[in-house]
């Protein structure tokens, strides 16, 4: 299995269709990538498969030519129909071996982990099976009702230190917490409400981008 190009995980947007209703999902994503988002994950647990394909194709239309990949949450079987760059699975979703088999060698695959044991289990697979780990929730979150209990920055630091894959922190991350996430060894931060539903999506994203890069004043 060949190496896929490395992902820039620094500012990872996880979409929420309801939160984005004011401007629409595609317009929100467009503004966010123009202001510094580097990866977009399409997540809508309430959408049917057909609805998610429609949403995904709308988002792909604004991502084309930007170099920013679209990752589909959970529904690995829809990646091809959407034309997305890959998928992200959780501990209770399709197994990573099965997911990689469905995706083929070219697509990206991320995995959510909450514990060091999850990392150990993932390492039973070839390192090239996965591209990154999503670690969290770091803090409590209101955007994923079935999220595990928050594990804190120390757990993030522990996982990042032993993972052979770059780690993206998720869960309760906002402007003020980005510096802690980066110091803990994460390659990036995933956000939902810090961008989705903000009255000025581009300004909110620029603030996050500057905070991650250490250029905010």
CATH topology label: TIM Barrel
CATH class: Alpha Beta
Q: How is the biggest beta sheet arranged?
A: 8 strands, parallel, barrel
First CA to last CA: what distance?
44 Å
List the strand order in the largest sheet. Answer: 1-2-3-4-5-6-7-8
CATH architecture: Alpha-Beta Barrel
User: Could you state the CATH homologous superfamily?
Assistant: Aldolase class I
Work out the radius of gyration: 16 Å
% residues in beta strands: 15-25%
Strand/helix succession: EHEHEHEHEHEHEHEH
Strand tally, please?
Answer: 8
The residue-averaged pLDDT reads 94
Low-confidence stretches: none
Query: Helix- and strand-based class?
Result: alpha/beta
Q: What form results from the Cα inertia axes? A: globular
Helix content: 25-40%
- When the domains are counted, the total is 1
* Count of runs of 4 or more consecutive helical residues: 8
